[in-house]
Prior knowledge:
1 helix, mainly beta, two-stranded antiparallel sheet, seven-stranded antiparallel beta sheet, globular, 137 residues, 32% strand, disordered N terminus
Amino acid sequence: GATLSPGAGAPAASAPDTSARAGTSAPGGPSGSVAMPSSADPEASTLRDFAIRNGPEQLPLPADLMISYTVDNPNNVTLVIDVSQGSQTYRFLRDRLPGAGFTITADRQQSLTFSGHGWSGAYTVSQDLAGLTLRRP
């Protein structure tokens, strides 16, 4: 269940924001909640654009990312991402992380580990799940 972080005044785990970016979709289908043109180079957003207060401000994320669940703690940020966006988010991170000051330390089978700006991170995609975890070492 959700727990309170000491001094944070906010739940450590929260339900998704169902406003502008989060949406529901049929299994395997795209969400109709955000009208984004199809592009090989989608616009980038940051954690703050998704109302996530912790994590590196420089981390690029696809602007149309659909986040199913978040953990937003000072030393740990986790995003569970709609699996229909898993592969495209992997490609986006692979392309954008180095230019944003992050070093990719491993890249295999649609999984990445990386570090930068005082954080270490991991992103992985499976058939059923896509997730990003950031930790402050």
